[in-house]
TrEMBL record, chains A, B:
<dbReference type="Pfam" id="PF20463">
    <property type="entry name" value="PDH_C"/>
</dbReference>
<protein>
    <recommendedName>
        <fullName>prephenate dehydrogenase</fullName>
        <ecNumber>1.3.1.12</ecNumber>
    </recommendedName>
</protein>
<keyword id="KW-0057">Aromatic amino acid biosynthesis</keyword>
<comment type="pathway">
    <text>Amino-acid biosynthesis; L-tyrosine biosynthesis; (4-hydroxyphenyl)pyruvate from prephenate (NAD(+) route): step 1/1.</text>
</comment>
<keyword id="KW-0560">Oxidoreductase</keyword>
<feature type="signal peptide">
    <location>
        <begin position="1"/>
        <end position="23"/>
    </location>
</feature>
<dbReference type="InterPro" id="IPR003099">
    <property type="entry name" value="Prephen_DH"/>
</dbReference>
<dbReference type="GO" id="GO:0006571">
    <property type="term" value="P:tyrosine biosynthetic process"/>
</dbReference>
<comment type="similarity">
    <text>Belongs to the prephenate/arogenate dehydrogenase family.</text>
</comment>
<dbReference type="InterPro" id="IPR046825">
    <property type="entry name" value="PDH_C"/>
</dbReference>
<dbReference type="GO" id="GO:0008977">
    <property type="term" value="F:prephenate dehydrogenase (NAD+) activity"/>
</dbReference>
<dbReference type="InterPro" id="IPR050812">
    <property type="entry name" value="Preph/Arog_dehydrog"/>
</dbReference>
<keyword id="KW-0028">Amino-acid biosynthesis</keyword>
<dbReference type="InterPro" id="IPR008927">
    <property type="entry name" value="6-PGluconate_DH-like_C_sf"/>
</dbReference>
<dbReference type="GO" id="GO:0070403">
    <property type="term" value="F:NAD+ binding"/>
</dbReference>
<dbReference type="InterPro" id="IPR046826">
    <property type="entry name" value="PDH_N"/>
</dbReference>
<dbReference type="GO" id="GO:0004665">
    <property type="term" value="F:prephenate dehydrogenase (NADP+) activity"/>
</dbReference>
Amino acid sequence: MAVIYNRVALIGLGLIASSMAHALRAGGFAGEIVGYAKTAETRATALEIGLCDRVFDTAAKAVQGADLVVLAVPIGAMGALAQEIAPHLAVGATVTDVGSVKQAVIDAVAPHIPTGVHFIPGHPMAGTEYSGPRSGFATLFQNRWWLLTPLPETDAAALARFRGLLESIGAKVDTMDAPHHDLVVAVVSHTPHLIAYTMVGVADDLRRVSNSEVIQYSAAGFRDFTRIAASDPTMWRDVFLTNKDATLDILGRFTEELFALQRAIRLGDGDHLHAYFTRTRAIRRGIIEAGQDTAAPDFGRTPKT
Amino acid sequence: MAVIYNRVALIGLGLIASSMAHALRAGGFAGEIVGYAKTAETRATALEIGLCDRVFDTAAKAVQGADLVVLAVPIGAMGALAQEIAPHLAVGATVTDVGSVKQAVIDAVAPHIPTGVHFIPGHPMAGTEYSGPRSGFATLFQNRWWLLTPLPETDAAALARFRGLLESIGAKVDTMDAPHHDLVVAVVSHTPHLIAYTMVGVADDLRRVSNSEVIQYSAAGFRDFTRIAASDPTMWRDVFLTNKDATLDILGRFTEELFALQRAIRLGDGDHLHAYFTRTRAIRRGIIEAGQDTAAPDFGRTPKT
């Protein structure tokens, strides 16, 4: 347990920032945690539940004197935020963000970062469908990836220090360039989310199946979709608007493939279906072996009694 | 703890039947459990791990003297199975099945059921992505729906007795007609599964994103899809072939809706996206309130340490 940053400023106090606060505090990795949130209610909550030692009513005030500044606001708000805080950043400070899209954040934030301040774009690949200051928990990042997309000019020592913090709170860290990051997440996260949102919306729309039936009989499959589709609407709107090209690219591949399966169903081509379903099964085994999910037969859910 | 059926014959010993065996044994609801499986290996396993008191190498032998016969084979195999066992069924016995599609099973099985035998088609809405005799566990049906689609001529006393058994092993039971059942499950289960299979297949196909990246970085979203897409290929092939019309119907609605969202992304229509994502969030709340999933912030997953 050693302090890695003397003062951490969390800008935005949602799921990710509040989980960071819990994890930093649990490990004693921050000398002080300060915060900013847009609403007075969230700021009051942050003090009440002990997320922050101090809260401020502007981001500009919150970042003063901080050696780590975490931008944890929707992607669409990053540019204006960076512009606002830029004059108040301490020389030598590290600024990071937690946005799910990296090129758009770099384009919006990097031009505002003053000389002598280190900008390290980041993406914690962890989350739940909950949001707000009460949704965080200290173990959210345990064994999860935190991808960093440093710029060519990023200072190696600043990067190593930040990476050390992330590993201290349990994350696995990898680095890659921003465009590749954005394509990878379009595949493993953004497009699946859009599809889940769509399916849940369709179910909600159907008049022949009542909403209570959809809710009551939702089993594995749809139930998992609704969990995904309950994620923060603002965050996801910004994800799709800012990772547009990669998402549309993967969506195109998805519909092509879906139409092929649809055709197999229509034609009664059982061999095509069976071969496809057998192939996808192997990927699942790989994910369990990589430790990204539990293999418990009940999915780790506690049976209801 | 009271015996409800003197001899239960489980025909097919996969996830559902083996879970039934565990649940029946745990509650003492069956005087004797006998079984049939196609392969000698599965039959040996069933004896070794105590699923069945006796196993038989033909379904015809297994059903003799049983007062409850459970057909737990892929839907495509139900018709031939019913034909084989029909002459060996005891008068007064109840025959049920556990297929995910009901009209196709009724069409295949009902014509073979002799007078004096009660056929009660059923669908336990519970499962994991595992299959085989070792995949079962006694609590699989706890608090899960078991839908029955009795025929107009189904005997009320036989139905009440079977319903009592299902409730004894923890299931919630509802009845509806077969065509409506098939539409409901097309919405809450079959179409979501097809979509998950598709997305996982697309990810596997992409050359610009390596398979190891897909596996390593799979987060909520894709990770849940892979769990769905790891389900038994034969079972799901038969589901889509036998619930073709309802699945194609819902798929049509799905692609229509997906194209509208895709267009909103292309045009940068954030309001459309935000409104859609806000609406789907409400459904999730309904599911948690209905007790179909856990609201634990970590989804009930045990954090890895």
